[in-house]
Design goal:
Elements lengths: L2 E10 L2 E11 L4 E5 L6 H8 L9 E4 L2 E2 L4 H6 L1 E4 L11 H11 L4 H14 L15 H13 L5 E5 L7 H18 L2 E6 L10 E6 L2 E7 H5 L4 H9 L4
Helix pairs in contact: 3-4, 4-5, 5-6
The chain binds adenosine-5'-triphosphate.
Adenosine-5'-triphosphate (ATP) binds next to strand 2 and helix 1.
Length: 238
């Protein structure tokens, strides 16, 4: 099991954002975390990345407890935040080199890792372009490559396709699915868009801080299109 979450609850003051959330994701699975705005997706990511800590509940990343061994657990985690965090005036390679240095990598080992990560996202030929010159889809791919440099086994992506056109969204979704099947990376992909979820994907539906459904997307959808099932369950269009 690559990611295990048990009984997480979280409140901002009196506003309860997560209610007894529990789930487990197997190695190499693509898991979509689907929820309307305000469902609690970013709060859950904040807890998984240790932006916030809670006295209750348990999180294990690749078998390591985030509470008992935070540094070891976080080493297994790659993160793509909702807001882009690339330096627009540096090249793709410079951005990734900076991140590699933060992980103690420099020289040839860093170059090998960076080239490998960029190649996986079909971005190697863009390595020396300034990020400012790239379109939104390529910026996102550079960001995903950056999140892979330290060779995490679990990758979290918080609504990574926000603001992208349909073609770029489809391309990024395909690339990240390939990371699961070809590299056995475990993915948790937050979204509010049902068309990013494939029938074979694992699906968690989060609504008002609670898990409403957990299973294969096609099983949860049943005889309805997933968008209709989601609307039926949450009252939200997606
Ligand atoms: N700093 C905060 N203070 C108070 N309430 C907050 C804060 N951040 C989030 N909330 C509330 O907590 C709930 C969960 O928010 P969260 O951002 O985790 O949801 P989300 O599913 O990520 O939504 P979105 O897709 O809009 O980012 C919402 O009701 C939100 O209004």
């Amino acid at each position: 099991m690559s990611l295990r979450v048990r009984d997480l609850s979280f409140s901002y003051g009196t506003k309860q954002a997560l209610r007894h959330v529990s789930f487990e994701i197997e190695t190499g699975d693509f898991c979509a975390l689907l929820g309307p705005n305000g469902a609690g997706k970013s709060t859950l990511f904040g807890l998984l990345t240790r932006l916030f800590t809670v006295p209750n509940g348990e999180i294990e990343i690749a078998g390591d407890s985030l509470r008992a061994s935070p540094l070891i657990a976080l080493k297994s985690l790659g993160i793509v935040f909702q807001q882009t965090t690339l330096d627009l005036d540096l090249s793709v390679r410079q951005n990734l080199s900076y991140f590699a240095a933060l992980h103690g990598l420099s020289g040839k080992p860093a170059r090998t890792r960076i080239d490998g990560a960029l190649a996986r996202l079909n971005m190697l030929e863009r390595a020396d372009e300034k990020v400012r010159a790239l379109n939104g889809g390529h910026r996102r791919r550079a960001e995903i490559a950056r999140a892979l440099i330290h060779q995490p086994t679990v990758l979290l992506l918080d609504e990574p396709t926000v603001g992208l056109d349909a073609a770029a969204r489809a391309s990024i979704t395909e690339h990240v699915h390939a990371l699961c099947t070809e590299q056995s990376i475990t993915v948790l992909w937050a979204t509010h868009l049902t068309d990013e979820v494939k029938p074979e994907d694992r699906l968690l539906i989060l609504h008002e801080g609670a898990v409403l459904a957990d299973g294969r997307a096609k099983t949860i959808a049943g005889d309805l299109p997933l968008a209709d099932r989601f609307l039926e369950m949450t009252g939200a269009a997606a």
